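User: For my dataset I need records formatted as: sequence, then structure tokens, nothing else. Please produce one.
Assistant:
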Amino acid sequence: MIIETKYNVGDEVWFHTSSGPICGTIESITVTKYGLIAELSSEELVDITWPLDKLFPTKEELLKSL
């Protein structure tokens, strides 16, 4: 089975935490029964996972979604 995703490993993405917008790099993408989850690395956080549908390609698109 092939699953097409909006993002690929190595892509830089933006996501929102209680600390505000954060930029990270996708290290891996995992399929779970709840959806697609990305493991991210960033300077601010270590070993974070985030739903793929809650990631944005730019900071501007992230802020527009809020």
